[in-house]
Amino acid sequence: MNDTATDYRVVIGLEVHVQLKTQTKLFCRCSTRFGQPPNTQVCPVCLGLPGALPVLNAHAIELACRAGAALNCELADSTKWDRKNYFYPDLPKGYQTSQYDLPICAGGHVDIPIAPSVHPSGSENVVKRIRLVRAHLEEDAGKSMHDEHSGRADSKIDLNRAGTPLLEIVSEPDLSCAEEAKTYLSELRLLMVYLGVSDGNMQEGSLRADANVNLHFVRDGKTIATPIVEVKNLNSFRSVERAIDFEVARQASEFLRTGLAKGQAPKQTRGWNDALGQTELQREKEEEADYRYFPCPDLVPVRLTSLQKQTANEQSTATPTHYRDLLIHEHELKSNDAEILIQQGKSVVEYFLHCIRAGANAKRVAVWMLQDVLRTLNDRSIGIELYPVSPTRMAELLTAIEQGKVDTSQAKQALAKLIDEPNLSVDAAIESLGIVRVDASEIESLCKELLAENTDVIDKVRAGNTKAVAALVGQAKKRNRNADPRLVQETCLKLIEQMQ
Amino acid sequence: MNSTPKILTLNSLGQQLRSGALSSRRLIENQLDQVHRSNASINAIVSIDSDRALAQADYWDRQIASGQSIPALAGIPISVKDNLCSKTGVTTCGSRMLRDFRSPYDAHVVERLESSGAILFGKTNLDEFAMGGSTETSVFGPSRNPWDLQRTCGGSSGGSAAAVAAGLVPASLGTDTGGSIRQPAAFCGVCGLKPTYGRVSRWGLISYASSLDTAGVFAQSVEDIALVLQAIAGHDPRDSTSLPHDVPDYLAAVHQEPSIQGTRIGVIRDQIESPGLDPQVRSSLLEAIEAYRKLGAQIVDVQMPHSKYSIATYYIIAPCEASSNLARYDGVHYGFRSSAKTASTLDRMIEQTRSEGFGPEVQRRILLGTYALSAGYYDAYYLQALKVRRLIRQDYDDAFAKVDVLLGPTTPQPAFRLGEKINDPIQLYLQDLFTVGANLAGIPALSIPTAPGPDGLPIGMQLQAPVLAEAKLLSIAAAYHRATEYQPKLPAAFEDPTS
C-alpha cells in the first residue's frame, strides 16, 4: 500500500521568542549588551537576591505594543505579570516572570509570501495568512554552560542574559511544511528588525523558535492526528527547516509502525541536535507540567492608554509589506528585485527611496543598487550606513546619465572616484576623470562629418531603421572621447530629418 | 553630663545629644553593656557590629561638637529585624538557609534610617522567614519576653519588640505580614506600627508574602513611632508597589492636641465579645474605650461580616506567595547548600538543600502554598481567597465610611508560654485573628499598651485607620496615652543599674 507514505497533512505551529532591542533588562537597569564577560551585567534583581524587587522597563512595553500593532494583534487595555514557577539552575528566582491569561497582545496574523513552487497558481506575490494566538512579554533565563572536557562535569551559569525582555509570539498551527515555517520565521524576523523591535541577530539568539509538529493522516475518510511533538531550541532558519523535515519523516514512520494517534501516546518534548541532524527525546509526559502560574505580587498591572496604542499604530507602519507595495506598485520594480532590496533591510530601502526623492529614476536606481551598491557593501562587509556615497550624490550622478552629461561607463568611473573620495562633488568627480561636456555645436559638426562619410546610414534611417545611427557612436568616440553617445545619436537623427 | 535616662525614648535622647548632656559614644557604649548583660536572657539581637556603631557614634559626636545641624535620629541606636538587608554583617532571616548570607546592598529602610543619622545597632531575632508568632521557629532559638522570660515575646518580629521592651534600643524596625509587629508589641508592652501597604518601601525586605509584607516600627511611645516613621516613609522607585503620595508631618500630628470630641471610634463588637478573648484583655480594652468616651469620642458599634474568614484567607494567600518567593533558595547561587551524599544530581541537591535548610514551619507553608496553586486547586483556594480578600477590604471601606478609626484587641490574650503552642500550628495561626485584616486590606494599624493585667503582663490595643491615615491614627493613639498619663517603663530586671 503506497498511499500511506504521502496521505497526510503536516501541521505546524511556531512559538518564537524575540529578544527586544531595549538598552536595559525587563525588570532592572542592567545592560542587555551581548558578548560581555560572564556575570558582569547583573544586579540584585536579576540575580534573584533576597529582598530585591522588579521594576518594569517601560521601553519593553512600547516595543511590544509596536510589534503587536504590526502583527495585527489586539492590544490589551490592561495586562499583568504572572509567575511561572519551576526550578532550573539558570532561573535564579525559581520562577520566570511572564504573562499567563492577560497577554499584552492577543490574536493577530502575519501574511507570508509563498514561493510559486509551493503555490500551484505560480503567480507572483501570493501570500498566506498565518494566524496568531497571542504575543506576550517575559524575561529570559540565564545560560548554563557544561564543560565536560576536564573529565568531571563542570557546569557554570552566566546570568548576563537573565531578565532580558522577550516577546513570545505564538502562532496557530497554520504552517503546513518546513519551508513555510522557515518563511514565516524569516518574515517575522524582517518585520521585527524593520520596526526596530529587535536586532534580529540569529547568531546571538535574538530569535529562537520552538515548533509544535504533528501529522494529520486520512484513513477511510477520517482524519487521524498523530501526537503533537514540541521541538525546542531552533536557533537558525536552517535548523527550523531541517528539524521539521526530520520530525515529519520520523512521525510518519512512527505512525505507520505503531498506529498511535494523538491522545494514545504521551506528548513529547524533543530537542534539535544540529550536529547529528536529529531531534532527541527530552521529556515525555502524560500531562502538562504544572507551573502554578499566579499574578506576580511585586508588580502592578499595566494599563495601556489610547495614546500608547495610537503611538504603537503610528510606529508600526514601516513594515516590509508596506515597502514591498511601494517598490512594486509605485516604483514599478520587478518583485524579485524589490525583494532583494527589502531583504537587505529598511535602511537600504530608505536609501533607494531617498535617491528617488532626490530626482533619480527609480528603475535606474534599482539597477545601480542591485549591481554596484550591494556589491560594494558585500565586498567591504559594511552596512548602507557606512556606504561612502550619500543618496543625494548618488541621485545626482544618476541624473547626470539621464541628462547625457556622462554615459553609464563614465558614471561608474565617477562612482568609484566618489567612493574613494566621498567629499568630492559629483561634478568634480566627473571632471577629475577628464570628462568634459562637449558643446552641442561641436557635436553637430562632428555628426555632419560622420554622416557625410557614411551615407549608407542615412539610407537605412530613411528606410525606417533609426537604430542604424548607433553604428556611428564608436567612430564619434574615437574622434572625441567625451562625445555623449546618446547625444550623438539624437543629433544624427535630427540632421537626417533636416536633410529631407 | 553623660548620664543615661532610665527610659530610652528617642525624643529625650535626641534632646540630650543635641544639648551635649550625652554623647553618642557614651550612649552606644552603655547600650552595648546592656546587650552584654541582657541579651543572653532574651536572645533579642542575633548579630551586632559594635565597632561600626562606635565609629558612627564618634562621627555624630564630632558633627554635634562642630555645631553642624544634624538629622533627626543622629547618633541614636536603632536595631533592625534580620529579614531587612544590611551591608553590615549577615542577613539571616532566622534561617539555616541564609545563616551566612551577606547582602551586597542595604534595604531602603536601612538606608533611610542611616541617612537620618540613626546607628544600626544589631539585627534582631525573628521566626524563620517571618513565618510564626513566637520566634520559636528561628534557627537561633526563641527570643524571650523581658516581662516574663518563660513567655514568648511574640513574633515574628519578636526580637525587635523584646529589644525595645528591655531597653536595649529606643526603637527597632520590624516587618508585619499578618500581625508580626503588632502582636509582639502587645506582648512586650511597647508601641508597634504597621504602616499602610506601600507607604514604606519593601526594597531589601526579604519577601515572605509580597502583597502583605510591610516594614514598620517599634518604640516606647507614639511620638517615637512618628519620628521613625517620618524617616522611613515615602516613595521609592525601586518598589513598584510603593505609593507616590507626599509624607505628612507625623510628629506634628502627634504633638497637636486634637479634639477627640466628636471623633468616631468604631468598636468591632464581635471582637470584644469574642468568647476566645481573655477577660484581662477585655477589661483593659473596656477601660480604654471608657477613656476615649470621656475624652468626648463617639463610640460606634461596627460590623465586619467577613472578618471571620480573614484567617483562612490569609493562610491561603500568604503561603501561596511564600511558595514562590522562597523558590530562589535552591542552593545553586547563594546561601546554604546540602553536602549530603544523596545530593548527587541537581534535582536531589535542590531537594536536600531545601529539606535541610528550611525548618518545619517554613516547609509547611511552602507545601500549603504549592498545593493551593496547583492545577485543579487554584480556583478553589487561591482565587477564592482573592475574592474574600476583596470582601474584607469592602468591610473596612464600609466601616471607615462611618468611623475614623477602629479599636479592638491586638491579640486574644497576653503573651503565652514558650512551647505552649509551637506544636499546634492551628492554635498559633489563630493568634493572628485580629491582626491579619489590616494586612489583607493594606491599611495602617497600631498596637499600643493599655493597662496591664493583674499578673503584670502587658496588654495591647489595636487601632486601625484608613489607607494613608497614619497621622490621624497616631494622633488618636497619643491622645489616649496623654489622657491616661501613660509612662513607658522597663521590666525591673532590665533597669539600667548604672543610672
Characteristics:
heterodimer; A: 500 residues; alpha+beta; 11-stranded mixed β-sheet; 3-stranded antiparallel β-sheet; 18 strands; B: 499 residues; alpha/beta; Amidase signature (AS) enzymes; two-stranded antiparallel ribbon; 13 strands; 39% helix
Describe the structure.
The complex is a heterodimer of chains A (500) and B (499). Chain A is an alpha+beta fold and 500 residues long. Chain A contains 16 helices and 18 strands. Chain A has helices spanning 44-47, 58-70, 178-194, 237-258, 306-315, 320-330, 335-344, 346-357, 362-380, 391-402, 408-420, 426-432, 440-453, 455-462, 470-479, 485-499; strands at residues 8-19, 74-75, 78-79, 82-85, 95-98, 105-106, 109-113, 127-139, 143-147, 154-158, 165-171, 207-219, 222-225, 229-234, 267-273, 278-285, 294-295, 302-303. Chain B has a domain at 76-265 and 402-494: Amidase signature (AS) enzymes (Alpha-Beta Complex). Chain B has 17 helices and 13 strands. Chain B has helices spanning 10-19, 24-42, 50-65, 108-115, 158-165, 182-188, 222-232, 250-255, 269-272, 279-294, 310-325, 346-357, 360-373, 379-400, 425-430, 436-441, 470-483, and strands at residues 45-47, 77-81, 119-124, 144-145, 148-152, 171-176, 191-194, 214-219, 264-268, 298-302, 405-409, 445-450, 459-464. In chain B, helix 4 links the parallel strand 2 (77-81) and strand 3. Chain B is globular. Chains A and B meet through loops of A and helix 11 and helix 12 of B.
Q: Summarize this, please?
A:
The complex is a heterodimer of chains A (500) and B (499). Chain A is 39% helix and 21% strand.
Sketch the major β-sheet of chain A: 11 strands, mixed
Q: Give me the count of strands of chain B.
A: 13
CATH class of the domain at 76-265 and 402-494 in chain B: Alpha Beta
- Integer tally of domains of chain A: 3
Structural class by SSE content of chain B:
alpha/beta
Q: What is the string of SSEs of chain B from the N terminus onward?
A: HHEHEHEEEHEHEEHHEHHEHHHHEHHEEH
Which percent band covers the strand fraction of chain B?
5-15%
CATH architecture of the domain at 76-265 and 402-494 in chain B: Alpha-Beta Complex
Largest sheet strand order of chain B: 1-3-2-6-8-7-12-13-11-9-10
Mean pLDDT of chain A: 91
Distance from N terminus to C terminus of chain B (CA atoms, Å) equals 12 Å
User: What is the share of helical residues of chain A?
Assistant: 25-40%
